[in-house]
Amino acid sequence: MAENPNNDISAGNSQAKWQNSILNAVRIELRHFQTTSTVV
């Protein structure tokens, strides 16, 4: 792995994007749940 650090960096970036997309989805779901619960 130490021979090719670029692969580790790209893997870390893709994982970060993946986690960010999940966090955004969870945030949207929470916001949607809050708006619907307040309306009801």
Gross geometry = rod-shaped
Determine the structural class based on helices, strands and strand pairing. mainly alpha
Strand content: under 5%
The helix count comes to 1
The proportion of residues forming helix, as a percent range, comes to over 70%
Mean pLDDT level: 80
The SSE string, one letter per element, is H
Major sheet description: none
Distance between the termini: 54 Å
Q: How many DSSP-defined strands?
A: 0
Low-confidence stretches: none
* Global Rg: 17 Å
Task: Give a brief outline of the structure.
The chain has 40 residues and is mostly helical. 88% of the residues lie in helices and 0% in strands.
Explain this structure.
The chain is an all-alpha fold and 40 residues long. Helix content is 88%, strand content 0%. The protein has one helix at 5-39. The protein is rod-shaped.
Question: Secondary structure elements and their pairing?
Answer:
Blueprint: H1 5-39
Q: What distinguishing features does this structure have?
A:
40 residues, mainly alpha, 1 helix
